């Protein structure tokens, strides 16, 4: 079994990870995992720690935190090696834990630690999103999904006001708040070179199936098929969105006349209006944006 670097975000889960880490550390030791660890000290620190771990030759880097922590670690690993030779382990202690639902990694810390003692290797795709931040073009790797429009506005308001409520409640509070102020936008979409003009509420580019603390926006998404499942909510009213919310948790929203699902490897979104961009639940910047798939770019311990 590979010697592991464990990266712990004590602020994940509204600070719950700091309280849980001593127990998780003991569970790792009881499971026979050989490791050392470091705690993150600021946003972006996990990326630096992951890059350093890869440079030092660690074969397994374990994320202890939420989806945002995992995203930072994957960005650090990808910067050093884009061929997936460093394996990612996940012990989820955050508020969302959506990506592990698709992978089948246990939410229980004890069971997740046991998985790391004799892990199987699962090779999956990643996504890359290019966007505008502070007037400059930037790029970010993501593991689960990238969203533009309503979903990104929910991420912004949830992080500002409701993060402490927990996964489902915080997201629902953000949704209900954004319903009062959201306005649909006119955009130009390009799917693998095919151009469409639409007025939309939301464009969600999915690698995994789950988001928003248990919602099922892309029920048929496959993290290893080299394609994104792209959910488009067209010019929906507030009443449409409110009525559809329970259906998204069940994954039955795709029959709604204002919902479309497409598969693509490359997506471009352009607009003259302000359109926010998020990835893996972290607000990044604004459109214009480009999103593309990175096939078989990450190896995960499951």
Would you write up a description of this structure?
The chain is of the alpha+beta class. The protein folds into 2 domains: 116 residues, 3-Layer(aba) Sandwich (Rossmann fold); 169 residues, Tumour Suppressor Smad4 (Sandwich), CATH 2.60.200.40. 31% of the residues lie in helices and 36% in strands. The protein contains 8 helices and 14 strands. It has a 6-stranded antiparallel beta barrel with strand order 7-9-8-12-14-13. Strand 3, helix 3 and strand 4 form a beta-alpha-beta unit. Helix 2 crosses helix 3 and helix 6 crosses helix 7. The longest helix has 15 residues. The radius of gyration is 19 Å and the shape is globular.
Descriptive labels:
14 strands; 302 residues; 2 domains; Tumour Suppressor Smad4; 31% helix
Which CATH architecture of the largest domain would you pick? Sandwich
- The unreliable regions are none
The gyration radius over C-alpha positions equals 19 Å
In total, the number of domains comes to: 2
Portion in beta strands: 35-45%
CATH fold field value of the largest domain: Tumour Suppressor Smad4
- Count up the helices: 8
- Average pLDDT works out at 91
> What is the element string, with H for helices and E for strands?
EHEHEHEHHEEEHHEEEHEEEE
Annotation, overall tally of beta strands: 14
Distance between the termini: 14 Å
What is the SS-derived class?
alpha+beta
Sheet with the most strands?
6 strands, antiparallel, barrel
- Helix proportion range: 25-40%
Shape label: globular
Strands side by side in the biggest sheet: 7-9-8-12-14-13
**What is the CATH class designation of the largest domain?**
Mainly Beta
């Amino acid at each position: 079994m590979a010697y592991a670097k464990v990266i712990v975000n004590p602020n994940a889960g509204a600070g719950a990870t700091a309280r849980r880490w001593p127990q998780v550390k003991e569970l790792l030791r009881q499971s026979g995992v050989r490791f050392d660890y470091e705690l993150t000290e600021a946003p972006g620190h996990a990326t630096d720690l992951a890059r350093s771990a890869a440079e030092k030759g660690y074969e397994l880097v374990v994320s202890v935190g939420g989806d945002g922590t995992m995203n930072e670690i994957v960005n650090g690993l990808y910067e050093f090696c884009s061929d997936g030779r460093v394996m990612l382990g996940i012990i989820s202690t955050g508020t969302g834990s959506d990506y592990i639902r698709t992978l089948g990694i246990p939410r229980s810390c004890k069971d997740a630690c046991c998985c790391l003692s004799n892990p199987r290797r699962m090779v999956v795709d990643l996504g890359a999103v290019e966007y505008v931040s502070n007037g400059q073009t930037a790029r970010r790797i993501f593991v689960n999904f990238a969203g533009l429009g309503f979903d990104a506005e929910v991420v912004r308001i949830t992080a500002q006001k409701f993060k402490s409520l927990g996964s489902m409640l915080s997201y629902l509070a953000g949704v209900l708040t954004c319903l009062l102020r959201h306005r649909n936008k006119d955009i130009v979409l390009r799917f693998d070179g095919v151009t469409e003009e639409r007025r939309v509420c939301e464009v969600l580019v999915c690698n995994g199936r789950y988001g928003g603390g248990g919602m099922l926006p892309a029920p048929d998404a496959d993290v290893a098929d080299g394609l994104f499942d792209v959910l488009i909510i067209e010019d929906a009213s507030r009443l449409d969105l409110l009525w559809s919310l329970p259906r998204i948790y069940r994954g039955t929203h795709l029959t709604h006349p204002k919902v479309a699902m497409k598969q693509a490897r490359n997506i471009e979104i352009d607009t003259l209006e302000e359109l926010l961009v998020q990835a893996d639940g972290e607000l990044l910047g604004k459109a214009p944006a480009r999103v593309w798939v990175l096939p078989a770019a990450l190896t995960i311990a499951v």
